[in-house]
Amino acid sequence: MFWLVESPPPTEEVTVNINVGGFRVETRLATLRKFEHSVIAQMFPPGRWFTEGLFDREQSRFIDRNGEAFIYVLDHLRGKTIMPSDRSLMDRLMDDAEFYGLWELQQKVHNHDLNCREIWIIFEDME
Known about the structure:
It comes from Plectus sambesii. The chain has helices spanning 29-32, 39-42, 67-77, 87-99, 103-126, and strands at 15-20, 23-28, 54-55, 61-63. The protein is α+β, with helices and mostly antiparallel strands. The protein has a four-stranded mixed β-sheet with strand order 2-1-4-3.
């Protein structure tokens, strides 16, 4: 069950509680709006983010995506792109980068995937 939460409009320095697929994180509103034309920034429009969308019973903004992959999305928004070592998580991160409209992250994931494949090909040739 979800509730609509009403509160005063926050400034960019206010922290936001988010529930992404059951995984809870807290971050600054400015972090979520870093890439202003991204889908994730548009999920938190100035002056309206606290009245639009779904909220869980703890009044966290709910996003129905993979919470484990969101850690990497959030790291990218904070300025440090880290790639998961798990292949299936890498695929989820690529999907989420596309979903959130984070084209730079999508390109980094793609390039990282190509580099990993090249390493495996070189390693297989050595055998």
